[in-house]
């Protein structure tokens, strides 16, 4: 595999195209990676596959590339969403970075009753997504949606999409729910019923979901309650583990 | 589940035992968690299960607990090791924390040819392990072994332990190896041959393993080369994903 620097570029890619570089990309190539005129890079834009390119010019005024040839045709990640209650800034950033590496298609912050923080710094998260997509050899960036309240999200839920409900903390409503829809099944076996339906993984805040939220979730036909082992996982660990199991069972790691 | 603070204590636990608290534990209980005399906590020591306890006294001179009754008998995590090439400090700390949450039994830094950093701050890593074990509701702490060179580790490898070799980067030696022992199988299906043998997961440094290391690893009967999907994962992401798949397939998440 080529070790040439890899850049997401927001412009059409075709043989011979001249691409001016954004200031941050020029800084990364010239100052961080120490590349100069004539050096090779790889570029992708989420639509046209991956291409070779060459640094055509680089100066204090800016830098630009000339596109060479296509090295890979465009390919999508599986149709998997990650819905997560925003937590502390560094943890939210970790979720965003790792979900991008693990090949998620869509991410959306979800505001639940016990969500501690709903401040999302979109610009910073987009920079993390871009860098992770570049490093992980994806051919696209995942979409980061605006945050939404859990209730509104469920009101408009697309019925054909399985909602994998990672229910880490048991609580007082458990007694009312027995059997498979109660505490949740181990995720890997629960996914057997999902097949290749589109899916979304829902991860709660550190304090878990409220009894009312858990009750509503478990009444929905599209919801599959799952557990992630006998220990208690932090929210960001649960997100990474759930994405891994889905990719490994239903996704493109098979 | 109780939300009383949970502490790992390095002392025998039995009903009525008086336990003096280490300075950091006293600080955590009194100043961080705002608890005082008479308040309930939970304690475990990796040998005697989990017990309730009460803060018997708390002052500037120190604090102590009185042990109440056992709430859970001692239980071990599955016999899984994680061998990882140390990387940047924050990434190594992330691996240690997440591996503790994901129920690993033993962790050991392994120095490979391309390992960039072999400085391990043992005291800081032990503090991270203790806190993660307390939060994740484990009944033990994973063992953190001294770092060792990959060659010496393989010289003394226990033959009955499967060595799951996470081989992220293809390189020039690939052509010499075809079929199942070549590029590696998807991890979940490769684990079918492991069954309930003891196992270790081996994660390389950011630059991957050298051709000589990869060649030696693939010649060993205990080695199972695996892949973690079509994207390139950072070392810490590969560690978390591999632990998750093992627990979900062979471990205690089933």
CATH class of the largest domain in chain A: Alpha Beta
Per CATH, the architecture of the largest domain in chain A is 3-Layer(aba) Sandwich
Oligomer: homodimer
Shape of chain A: elongated
| CATH homolog superfamily of the largest domain in chain A | SPOUT methyltransferase, trefoil knot domain
Q: Beta fraction of the residues of chain A?
A: 25-35%
Which two chains have the most extensive interface, and how many residues on each?
A: A-B, 36 and 36 residues
Query: What class would the helix/strand composition of chain A place it in?
Result: alpha/beta
Give the biggest beta sheet of chain A: 8 strands, parallel
Identify low-pLDDT runs of chain A.
Answer: 171-181
Please give the share of residues in helix of chain A.
25-40%
CATH topology of the largest domain in chain A: Alpha/beta knot
Radius of gyration of chain A, in angstroms, nearest whole number: 21 Å
How many helices of chain A? The count is: 7
In whole angstroms, the N-to-C terminal distance of chain A is 21 Å
What's the helix-strand series of chain A? EEHEEEEHEHEEHEEHEHEH
Q: How much is the average pLDDT of chain A?
A: 90
Q: How many structural domains in the coordinates of chain A?
A: 2
- The tally of strands of chain A reads 13
């Amino acid at each position: 595999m080529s070790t040439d620097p890899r850049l997401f570029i927001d412009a059409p890619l075709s043989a011979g195209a001249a691409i001016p570089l954004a200031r941050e990309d020029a800084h990364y190539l010239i100052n961080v990676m120490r590349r100069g005129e004539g050096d090779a890079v790889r570029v992708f834009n989420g639509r046209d596959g991956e291409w070779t390119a060459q640094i055509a010019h680089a100066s204090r005024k800016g830098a630009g590339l000339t596109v060479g040839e296509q090295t890979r045709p465009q390919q999508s990640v599986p149709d998997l969403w990650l819905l997560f209650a925003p937590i502390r800034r560094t943890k939210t950033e970790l979720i965003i970075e790792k979900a991008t590496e693990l090949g998620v298609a869509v991410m959306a912050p979800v505001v639940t009753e016990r969500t501690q923080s709903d401040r999302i710094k979109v610009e910073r998260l987009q920079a993390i997504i871009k860098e992770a997509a570049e490093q992980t050899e994806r051919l696209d960036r995942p979409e980061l949606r605006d945050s939404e309240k859990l209730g509104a999200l469920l009101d408009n839920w697309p019925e054909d999409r399985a909602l994998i409900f990672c229910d880490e903390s048991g609580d007082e409503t458990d007694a009312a729910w027995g059997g498979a829809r109660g505490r949740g099944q181990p995720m890997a076996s629960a996914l057997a019923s999902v097949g290749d339906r589109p899916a979304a993984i829902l991860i709660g805040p550190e304090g878990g979901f409220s009894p009312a939220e858990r009750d509503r979730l478990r009444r929905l036909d599209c919801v599959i309650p799952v557990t992630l082992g006998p220990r208690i996982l932090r929210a960001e660990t649960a997100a990474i583990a759930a994405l891994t199991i889905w990719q490994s069972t239903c996704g493109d790691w098979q």
